[in-house]
Design goal:
The complex is a heterotrimer of chains A (102), B (122) and C (744). Chain B is of the alpha/beta class and 122 residues long. Chain B is built from 5 helices and 5 strands. In chain B, β4, α4 and β5 form a beta-alpha-beta unit. By secondary structure, chain C is α+β, with helices and mostly antiparallel strands. In chain C, α3 runs antiparallel to α4, α4 crosses α5 and α13 packs antiparallel against α14. In chain C, the strands form 5 sheets. Chain C has a 5-stranded mixed sheet with strand order 6-8-9-11-10. A 5-stranded mixed sheet of chain C has the order 19-12-13-21-20. In chain C, strands 14-17-18-16-15 form a 5-stranded mixed sheet. Classes of the chains: A alpha/beta (102), B alpha/beta (122), C alpha+beta (744).
């Protein structure tokens, strides 16, 4: 299977990406991944994110890349940017973000 | 939006002092008189942290946490449990129930604020 | 809500707990069922435990110390290591008394007497004897101020041996989180944010090597490890404590600034990631320079080649590293703790208020009372002298005295909120006893009234609240049938209204049943005929002695205090009580009380040679009695005031004063609650500051007189009890009853 030509699966996460929602978000992401290994996740609606949320994004990125695709994060909300910044993960994801003054 | 903390203790004065301290640090506070009362007040609203005594009438703190873990909205809510130095058996029960944060009674308001800050900042 | 208020709650709560402790202790010998005994022992333990916990919050160390020992013994009893026998019960009772004493002393600001101190020490000795029983040698560790415990203070590795020193000024923290951290509600990010409050997180390096792809991961398991380059002035203990709640689940390595090269070997070995990746991350985070990293790796290589080959190449678990690393030196910890406690002391709240002995305050009020009277005397002399300068000086003096009086009375004013808040517990307990679900609403808690009044209102109010819950709020099934929510509501409210304070106890319960009350009243012979009785008249019947409509006498109401006692208590405070109720809908009981009991602004009048004072805030206006009513004492008791018919009474008749009224009579229109009435007097003398003196026994029984005062001239004036008189006027109007008389 060559996935590079696939139409990216798009999804906008709403609300919190935390330990409380991790299980259901994982299911949703897994469903998207089974359709396409190129995903574009819109994070503008994420009002809270914790380590569980960060892990989900990292694991998705890993699996996308393992399947020859990639994960693109767009429209990071302030809450997401704060956390990625704190953990120094912005460059890992490699997505263009509005640079905050660190 | 301020983070919400629930304090569960059968001592009204303890609840008041902790409340005052938390509120002045910028948290919202709801109170529960015992485990049963606290459960009845947890009706789906977001609570970021629960502080609970172990020894309470009606429903003790351990049972309260065990019940809490059955509720999807609160199963991962961090719990600070108040204990006595002599309460080692209770402590192992609490740890089995998933309580990792313990504060020994008696404590000063400042100590509680510090303990809370380690789990959530206002 | 402030700390002072919380402290008051503590006092009240402690007394309640101690009372419960005593009750339980007294009852426990009679309990034969094991479960009952266990419950009683738990309750006794909890009382000591709660008092200790709360006392600690307020820094009441004496109470903490004593209750700590008591609690320890009770804990032994609770865990069946000791059996509670008669000796122990009497010892516990003595301990309860001692705690009562200690709490009482804090409350009154008193000092522990030498003899009491000795009693306390003797009790501690007796208690300790139980703790020193052979099997219990580990329990009694005297820690009067235990800080938050560090369950295992030891595991944090802080190495201090080997190699050169790195250049970095910052702390290095590496941490591998355990799998259950997130499930337990702990978020690594929160810890980082907390670290951020005690320094600057220069850089965080995130390792997610352990994290599998999405489909294999458990979304609730934690897979993360981090390196942190942390700049902070904080000491080791403080930084360690940030990880207090997760350290049991995590592998943590903290290195102070300028740690040795060798220390970083342990960091690298402690993490599961590849050595070079960790090294790169350390450089990336700014913890090590490239050169330092090279030195670390070289050191590691040398170490490994020097050791036996079994360890080389395999990752050593951090647990073992920790054992090697040794502990933080005690001296360092001690110094750090000392520093912390110093900081806490300087932070101590500055007291905003001072506590004054109530007796001193009463003495001051009394003196001001005398001053007011003396001032009135000066006024009279000044008027008689007719000297302008004298009059002016006297008037300045009066004004100042008035201000001093107001200020002093204000000192005694307290908010009723404290009293109200106590009812949370009462409601909770009573509701629990009766198996009802009740919510207590409180409003108007900031309404102020005289301390004396507040103290005396507690009991009647408790009775009313209990009554509301017991007789007012229906059982859940009846409430459901009436379409009400299962949870009943009791509302305590307070507000000021024309010189009085009004306290309302409102419930959404079953309301009063007029027919039932009337039937009962007839049965008890309290009324003769049920005709023409207004609802409020009927409801007032429940305040008659020996009246009770409850179908079943419950534990709550079976306390031998009836509503008649409530009314008597309220009336003793110069207040009155009224009821509004609608059957099946709810009841409001309204208590109206004077703001203060000591000094009032009065309105002085004269009838014949006697002076009377009417509380000024009840006076609406003064008019001349219309001519057609003059000398018509036998005739109508009404006159028309601007078209409104107003009942009136002649004080001359009421108090049986000899002599004829003058050609001109005046009417003072007074209002109490919603009722207005006229009092006919000979002469109006004007406003007058009135110091209320209690009446002698002889006069206590005269209806219509509330107290006495002394005029500047030394004469005695009687203070009219307007609520009573207004009632009399209205009743007279109903029943044509003749005179108010001295009862026997």
């Amino acid at each position: 299977m060559d996935n590079t030509d696939q139409v990216p699966g798009k999804w906008q996460v709403e609300g919190e990406m935390t330990i409380f929602t991790a299980a259901s978000i994982k299911e949703k992401l897994a469903a998207l991944l089974s359709a396409s290994s190129r995903l574009e996740i819109d994070l503008s609606g994420v009002n809270e994110i914790d380590t569980a949320g960060v892990q989900l994004l990292l694991a998705t990125k890993k699996e996308c890349q393992a399947k020859g695709g990639d994960l693109t994060l767009v429209h990071h909300s302030i809450q997401v940017l704060d956390v990625l910044d704190l953990c120094n993960l912005t460059t890992i994801f490699g997505d263009p973000v509005v640079i905050s003054s660190n | 939006m301020a983070k919400t903390i629930m304090i569960v203790d059968d001592s009204a004065s303890l609840r008041q002092v902790v409340s005052i301290a938390l509120k002045s640090s910028g948290y919202d506070v709801i109170e529960g008189v015992d485990g049963k009362d606290a459960l009845s007040k947890l009706t789906g609203q977001k609570v970021h942290l629960i502080i609970s005594d172990v020894n309470m009438p009606n429903m003790d703190g351990i049972t309260f946490v065990q019940e809490l873990k059955k509720k999807p909205e609160y199963k991962f809510t961090p719990v600070i449990m108040l204990t006595t130095e002599s309460g080692e058996d209770k402590k192992s029960q609490g740890q089995a129930a998933g309580v990792k944060a313990w504060v020994v009674k008696p404590f000063k308001p400042d100590q509680m604020i510090t303990a809370v800050s380690k789990l959530i900042l206002p | 809500m402030g700390m002072e208020e919380a402290l008051q709650t503590f006092f009240v709560e402690s007394h309640e707990l101690l009372q419960e402790m005593e009750d339980r202790l007294l009852a426990i010998q009679g309990l034969v069922v094991d479960e009952d005994r266990i419950e009683a022992i738990n309750a006794i333990f909890r009382a000591a435990h709660t008092i200790k916990g709360s006392a600690g919050l307020f820094g009441l160390d004496g109470i903490v110390e004593f209750t700590h020992v008591l609690e320890s013994v009770l804990d032994k009893v609770r865990s069946s290591q000791l059996v509670m026998d008669a000796d122990m019960i009497s010892l516990f009772l003595k301990c309860k008394d001692h705690v009562s004493l200690l709490v009482g002393l804090e409350e009154s600001g008193g000092v522990l007497q030498g003899s009491d101190q000795a009693t306390g020490q003797a009790l501690v000795a007796q208690l300790s004897a139980y703790l020193q029983a052979p099997q219990t040698n580990t329990v009694h560790e005297e820690k009067t101020h235990p800080a938050i415990t560090y369950p295992h203070l030891d595991p944090l590795a802080l190495e201090s041996a080997g190699g050169g020193v790195v250049d970095n000024d910052n702390w290095h923290i590496s941490i591998e989180f355990g799998p259950d951290v997130l499930r337990n509600g702990m978020d690594p990010l929160s810890i980082f944010r907390y670290l951020g409050t005690m320094g600057t997180i220069v850089q965080v390096g995130t390792f997610f090597d352990r994290l599998p792809g999405l489909s294999e991961m458990d979304p609730e398991t934690c897979y993360m490890s981090y390196l942190i380059n942390f700049s902070s002035e904080a000491d080791k203990t403080t930084i360690e404590s940030a990880f207090e709640f997760v350290q049991e689940d995590c592998k943590i390595n903290i290195l102070p600034p300028h740690s040795r090269i060798a220390d970083f070997v342990s960091v690298i070995k402690g993490l599961p990631q590849h050595d070079l990746r960790i090294g790169e991350m350390l450089v990336q985070c700014g913890t090590l320079t490239e050169r330092e990293l090279a030195a670390v790796l070289a050191y590691q290589a040398a170490q490994e080649s020097g050791q036996n080959s079994t360890e080389a190449g395999t990752k050593q678990p951090l647990g073992e590293m920790v054992v090697q690393a040794g502990f933080v030196q005690p001296a360092v910890v001690e110094a750090a703790l000392q520093k912390q406690s110093q900081q806490k002391k300087t932070k101590a709240r500055q007291q905003q208020s001072i506590r004054v002995d109530a007796e001193k305050l009463d003495m001051l009020i009394n003196l001001i009372g005398e001053l007011v009277i003396a001032g009135a005397g000066v006024n009279i002399v000044a008027q008689r002298s007719g000297r302008a300068d004298m009059l002016e000086a006297a008037s300045t003096l009066s004004r100042l005295v008035e201000e001093v009086r107001d200020g002093a009375l204000n000192l005694r004013m307290v908010q009723i909120g404290e009293t109200f808040n106590r009812f949370q517990r009462v409601v909770h307990d009573v509701a629990k006893d009766l198996g009802k679900e009740i919510e207590l609403l409180i409003s108007g808690g900031d309404t102020e009234l005289d301390k004396t009044v507040v103290e005396k209102i507690g009991d009647p109010l408790t009775h009313l609240v209990r009554n509301s819950i017991d007789h007012g709020i229906e059982t859940a099934d009846i409430r459901a049938a009436r379409g009400k929510p299962a949870q009943g509501k009791v509302h305590l409210n307070a507000y000021h209204d024309s010189g009085s304070i009004v306290i309302e106890v409102q419930d959404d319960g079953g309301g009063l049943n007029r027919d039932k009350i009337l039937a009962k009243a007839l049965e008890k012979g309290l009324v003769e005929s049920v005709h023409e009785m207004s609802d409020s008249d009927v409801f007032q019947l429940i305040f008659e002695a020996g009246f009770s409509t409850a179908d079943t006498v419950s534990n709550i109401s079976g306390r031998g205090v009836g509503m008649d006692v409530v009314r008597r208590n309220i009336e003793a405070l110069r207040g009155n009580i009224e009821i509004q109720s609608k059957y099946t809908v709810g009841t409001t009981i309204r208590i109206r009380l004077p703001l203060t009991l000591a000094i009032i602004d009065g309105f002085l009048v004269r009838v014949g040679q006697s002076h009377y004072v009417i509380p000024l805030d009840m006076v609406i206006e003064c008019v001349d009695l219309p001519e057609e009513n003059l000398n018509s004492s036998k005739g109508s008791n009404y006159f028309s005031l601007r078209g409104e018919v107003l009942p009136y009474m002649r004080l001359r008749d009421t108090f049986e004063i000899d002599g004829e009224s003058g050609r001109r009579e005046s009417v003072v229109i007074v209002k109490y609650g919603n009722t207005r009435a006229g009092l006919v007097v000979d002469t109006l003398l004007g406003e007058f500051q009135t110091v209320i003196k209690p009446l002698g026994k002889l006069f206590e029984r005269i209806k219509g007189i509330g107290g006495s005062t002394i005029l500047g001239t030394g004469e005695v004036a009687l203070i009219l009890d307007i609520p009573n008189l207004v009632q009399q006027v209205v009743r007279k109007d109903h029943h044509e009853s003749s005179r108010l008389q001295v009862r026997h």
